[in-house]
């Protein structure tokens, strides 16, 4: 398959990406201290199926749930379960859907109730770093320019970039070429071309960059147990400015009116 997508394929990837944004907003509605993470997963799966799609992660390499829910020191790939969210938690929720043969994949990190100031700043700056990366996601630049922009921005605050997990191409497969690291050298890596669709997803740690896998075989957490944040957009490479296919608008409408 060509690494650049046809316009009619991009239309379908956008549709799937928008459904992810709407699903995360649906989850945001019930996100509060006292909620069980498995209940967020159930709500998301129901919403996705009601919209003629299937959860993109469920069954992917054996992943058993609709959402990846990663709390505090958990970075990504956390399992929903009996855990009850508490005031002050940072919760990263990653969601994928498959509709019409194409995937959408987007993630947002939420503050539960009142979070500590250093957690608030990590959230805001990790989200900002995603847009720094997207600014570099234009035809003629290289994959390394994206990671370099993210890395420079977050390291200026003393944060660190997780190296073990990366962004990726996206289409009829959840993970396609190229890999999109959130660190790197300017001018390095594959050249970006009009029509390439990438999932850009900085995972940023308050402390050291090192991570370990928990005993469930999936959950990734920081080695030093300091908090981590994760935001992800699907974008299509264009000549002057990337087009963002996913959206946080629905999520933020809910958060801002709570
Ligand atoms: Mg994702
Ligand atoms: Mg992804």
Under the CATH scheme, the architecture is Alpha-Beta Complex
H/I helix tally: 5
Helix content: 25-40%
CATH class: Alpha Beta
Distance between the termini: 44 Å
Strand order within the widest beta sheet: 8-7-9-14-15
CATH topology: Creatine Amidinohydrolase
CATH superfamily annotation: Creatinase/methionine aminopeptidase superfamily
Radius of gyration: 17 Å
User: What ligands can be seen in this structure?
Assistant: magnesium ion
Class computed from helices, strands and strand pairing:
alpha+beta
Strand content is 15-25%
Order of helices and strands: HHEEEEEHHEEEEEEEEEEH
For the residues shown, what is the average pLDDT?
97
Runs in which pLDDT lies below 50 for 5 or more consecutive residues are none
Task: Summarize the structure in words.
By secondary structure, this protein is of the alpha+beta class. Helix content is 30%, strand content 24%. It has helices spanning 7-30, 37-50, 117-135, 143-155, 249-256; strands at residues 54-55, 67-71, 74-76, 90-99, 102-111, 160-161, 167-169, 176-180, 197-200, 203-205, 211-213, 220-222, 228-230, 233-236, 243-244. Strand 7 and strand 8 (176-180) form a beta hairpin. The termini are far apart. The model has no long low-confidence stretch (mean pLDDT 97). The structure holds magnesium ion (MG) (2 copies). The site of one magnesium ion (MG) has 6 residues, from strand 4 and strand 5.
